[in-house]
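Practice problem. Given the sequence and the SMILES for calcium ion, write out the predicted structure.
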Amino acid sequence: MEIIKKLAAAVLTISSAVSIITFDVQAVSPDTPYPIAWQQGEKSGAELQRSAYIPETESWCHYPWNRGTETGNTVGKAGCSLFSVINGVYYRTGNFISPVFLADYTLEKGYRTEGYSGVKVEFFEEFALEYGDEYGMTYAGNTDSAEETLAHVRAGGVSSSNIYGHWVTIADYDAENDLYLMLDSSQLSTRCDNIEWTDRQNGVAWLSADTFLEEGKSGYFGIDGRYSALYNFDYTFSAEHCDADGSGSVDLGDSSAVLGFYAKGSAGYENPKLHPHPIQNDVCIEAADADSNSVIDIDDAKEILSKYAETASSNGDAEQQSDFIE
Ligand SMILES: [Ca+2]
Ligand SMILES: [Ca+2]
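Answer key:
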């Protein structure tokens, strides 16, 4: 255990020395529940989720999101349309889109404007056109038919669906139990008392078709006669060799992740994770085996540290690091 302590201390020391350079704001903790509906407002748990699972990401619930001359409106109060996309993309790809980024995007493009309670619906198609490649995401049209929306989800698609006064994601279909996965970014609203939850705290419910086939009305989750944007996903899960947390770069986070994984495994935890998304987790486990000997252990953490140190010093980022890595 002594060597783990030493390595962990080195990682911590280096992290604090170069944190500004190396923070990857998209890195998600392997402890993040899956599925999860990221919450929009502080009361519904947004800050609890953020601080526990994506602490480097900018806080969003009080981020201003005003229409025209409006003041005091925020992503937390009104950002459900944004979260209907964020939660679908996260469920399908393990990539967390910053709500602050998305809020700015809608403001700049004029989708968040006077006369619309959330966003102009053009947002859904335009975002997929502009950023869909990154997530293997394509826009597949829109419909106000609940039947059509559910058929799309059964065929492997995802929807951003408008219910009365709110937007949710219908993200998956369980054929065995004939249930649909609904992700709701505001799990404390009063309408939420009218359904049975799988994990209410994290906005997750597997629901029967009946719930959605109803005409949209206050207090319920019916989507018939309301707007659904439809998406398809064809995402390639990948991680560069040594990118153990799948953040898109090899850095100190990866050696920390490997140490954590190894320590949990040694302590007898079953199936320790490197990434919350089950598919990405498999990819990360392969990437974490830095010396390719089919075992993940301290040698891999050392190897990743060395690789990171080489890259960092060749970039001239942090001279101090050589003090810690032998
Ligand atoms: Ca990484
Ligand atoms: Ca290994």
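Check your answer against the key. Residues 243, 245, 247, 249-251, 253-254 surround calcium ion (ligand 1) (CB under 6 Å).
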